[in-house]
Amino acid sequence: MRILGLETSCDDTGVAVYDSDPVSGGLLAHKLYSQIELHAEYGGVVPELASRDHVRKLLPLIKAVLTESGLKKDQIDGVAYTAGPGLAGALLVGAAVGRSLAWGWQVPAIAVHHLEGHLLSPMLENEAPAFPFLGLLVSGGHTLLADIRGVGQYHILGESIDDAVGEAFDKTAKHLGLGYPGGPAIASAAKTGQTGRFNFPRPMTNRPGLDFSFSGLKTAVITAADKTSLDQQDIADIAAGFQEAAIDTLLIKTQRALAQTGYKSLVVAGGVSANELLRTRLGQIAKKEGLRLYFPRPEFCTDNGAMIAYAGAQRLAAGQSEGLAFGAWPRWKLDDLVKI
Ligand code: KG4
Ligand code: ZN
Questions:
Q1: For labeling, which of 199, 262, 275, 303 is most exposed (least CB within 10 Å)?
Q2: Where in the chain is the domain with CATH 3.30.420.40?
Q3: Which pLDDT tens digit goes with each residue over 223-248?
Q4: What atom of ligand 1 comes closest to residue 274's alpha carbon?
Q5: Residues 176-195, mean pLDDT to the nearest whole number
Q6: What is the distance between the alpha carbons of residues 335 and 328, in angstroms, rounded to a whole number?
Q7: What is the pTM of this model?
Q8: Are 213 and 160 in contact (CB under 8 A)?
Q9: What is the pLDDT of residue 318?
Q10: Average pLDDT value over all residues in the chain
Q11: Do 267 and 220 touch, CB atoms closer than 8 A?
Q12: Which residues line ligand 1 (CB under 6 A)?
């Protein structure tokens, strides 16, 4: 089955074709158009601008992906689109185009949960994880640990009660004048910073449980930054201290969740999973504790069409599909998904 996948939930227009044939299949083509430049001058995503840009870019990108895959439109067996969670207007662009194309081509359509796409994204790699495993999802909108037993079987063990970790990176970077998106900007500034100079809190690690909180850390960083007129070195030192605290917090909770579930496989996905410090530290833990560690390739850590095509293919193969109506669910809960 060859599935066209569309991702438009935030500030990336992603399109891909995935072939589910176990022998000849795999990812046939994918393209991404990032709106970073469009939003950079505002220091964050402007929803209305995002929707309009998806309208401009989606159809040309679909044509380009079909050309790259060498497929004609009548060789596509289904269309998957992100239907939530995300920005309502942006989601509606992908949902409207995806549902309409499927109707025009007389193939089934499937609405995909964005976080399911992220969590299954390591399955696109040669060394794919096998169920069950622990999932750590770290993105701009979400931070959560989940017990994952199969497609659609996600039991949330803990999540952020306020800011997502990526959001904390973005807000901290904005305050330090490092630009948008903040994750890569903080990581790069931290390279020349001294880790030990600013010792920021590791929120909620001194009490039991697997929930996260990042708004206090962000505030501690902003307070420290406001105390002095910052030079380049101060900014680098604060960035290093913040990154260390944020990653440490993720590691403490992840190790706790591994102990609680007894799982020896860990999948890490979402934009922040591109972070080098997180990858290095997790690699060290994995080596020490005999853990199997799975990440998506770096370009599929952030939003992309490939993960949506893959997740959609699993659901279509199980016989699920949408009626003729379409919708977008900006606040769709991950544990409400249908099991397959
Ligand atoms: O998964 P994603 O593309 O979008 C959401 O679904 O939210 O994640 C975007 C987030 C942004 O907050 C961005 O700053 C963060 O991922 N990010 C990083 C890195 N690359 C992207 N955070 C830390 N280190 C990175 N290298
Ligand atoms: Zn995402």
A1: 262
A2: 2-121+300-336, 131-295
A3: 999 988 999 999 999 999 999 999 99
A4: 26
A5: 96
A6: 17
A7: 0.96
A8: yes
A9: 97
A10: 97
A11: no
A12: 10, 139-141, 166-167, 169-170, 181-184, 187, 270-272, 274-275, 302-303
DSSP of 267-315: EEESGGGG-HHHHHHHHHHHHHHT-EEE---GGGTS--HHHHHHHHHHH
- What is the DSSP-derived secondary structure letter of residue 118? H
**Residue among 139, 172, 243, 295 to mutate when testing ligand 1 (max atoms within 8 A of CB):** 139
Residues 290 and 158: beta-carbon distance below 8 Å? no
Q: Detail the DSSP E strand segments found in 96-210.
A: 109-113, 133-138, 143-150, 153-159
**pLDDT at position 5:** 99
Q: What is the CA radius of gyration of the chain?
A: 20
Whole-number Å distance, alpha carbon 86 to ligand 2 midpoint, is 8
Task: Reply yes or no on whether the pLDDT at 68 is more than 90.
Answer: yes
Write out the CATH class of domain 2-121+300-336.
alpha beta
Tens of pLDDT, residue by residue over 261-305, are 999 999 999 999 999 999 999 999 999 999 999 999 999 999 999
Contact assessment for residue 336 and residue 153, using Cβ atoms and an 8 Å cutoff: no
Q: For residue 337, how far is the Cα from the chain centroid?
A: 18
Nearest-atom index, ligand 1, CA of 276: 26
Helix axes 232-261, 182-190, angle to 10 degrees: 110
Residues with CB under 5 A from ligand 2 (ion): 139, 303
Q: Which two tokens stand for residue 262?
A: 């007894």
* Domain range 131-295, CATH class: alpha beta
CA distances from 150 to 21, 95, 137, 246, 314 (A): 19, 25, 16, 29, 11
Amino acid at 270: G
Q: Across residues 56-71, what is the average pLDDT?
A: 98
